Hints:
alpha/beta; 7-stranded mixed sheet; 5-stranded parallel sheet; globular
Amino acid sequence: MIHGALKILSGNSNPELALAIANHLGCTLTPCICETFSDGETRVEISDNVRGDDVFVVQSTCAPVNDNLMQLSLMLDALKRASAGRATAVVPYYGYARQDRKVSPRAPISAKLVADFLTVAGMQRVVTVDLHAGQIQGFFNVPVDNLFAAPVMLEYLRKMKGEIVVVSPDAGGVERARAYGKRLNAGMAIVDKRRDTPNQAMAMSLIGDVEGKAAIVIDDIVDTAGTLCAAGDVLLKHGASEVMACITHPVLSGPAIQRISDSAFSRVLVTDTIPLSEEGRNCEKLVVLSVAGLLAKAINNIHTESSVSVLFI
Length: 313
């Protein structure tokens, strides 16, 4: 099915990324009002005709998570009521993804609820980057394109000299680290950790050899950075010549930035799926790589009914 003109909308969560995507596509952002009423309710109004158009809404559900989620939902509803041809949610960072299963008897599966919420709002397709767990794609009843930030990271890492080893900070991230190791022709190691309470983790031991090598920790999210920095200390303790990290989503809540500044890491590569705070921008160890080009290619291929799988590694 061929839809109408390509249009890009942006919420307030990451306007810089939306503008960069539009620049890659050679188009301008469709004007949209995203404000807050005096009582705290969200106000959204699309300021241009979108009837029959192929509309992509760029909005990460990062902090303030609930405000940005509500804004995205109202934008999708507005598009539905304005008779847009298709509404695709481009959610570079999908919030609530870590709540993807019942961890206690009476806990919600929030990632599924948010997927249903956005679909009811009017989302007909979703594009995201590095979902916390691949199976979350099954929570949606619409097509999902889960892109990987690896091509952007690998372009940077391939310029490094010397022997490197990729490191998974826990057992759950082994598949991700293995994918990087395969493309870098590098060895792999695993940091064994034990989590006692949410947002706190203790690095216990290292599986693998990092002696005299540049160790690169691979993960999808850095939140409070406790796990990440503990992993860096373990790697340095076991003889790594340099410790780096590649993290797709820089949530960086609480003491995260100060922890990274004080950590063993020489550099922490992140992407712009979430905009950095002023403190984050001033952190010399944080290096931001843009996924705007990757998302622009995906949007173009979806709009032209071309294959999106060519973007996957």
